[in-house]
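user: Please supply your own:

assistant:
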Amino acid sequence: MTKSSSINVTVEKGGTKEFEKTGVYPQYLVFNSKDLKKRWKHKLSGETKQGILAFEGKVLFQYQFDGIECSITDEIGNAVDVEMSILMKD
């Protein structure tokens, strides 16, 4: 991506259906790029997570979540603006 990007990251906590099946409230990182009109949802299985965000078979971003904040870089290593939020749901 050549232009500056921003990604909204939501830490989504909860979910009655999965809790009933597993006994554990699930947590997800939900990434939303308005520029790309793309949404990614990655399950959190621990306090921290790192991974990639791909689109049409190409890795566009890498992310690191430390349990509080998420840092994202594009494919050439430039920092991406990140807006964090938390969503609690049943």
Observations:
- The chain has a mean pLDDT of 91.
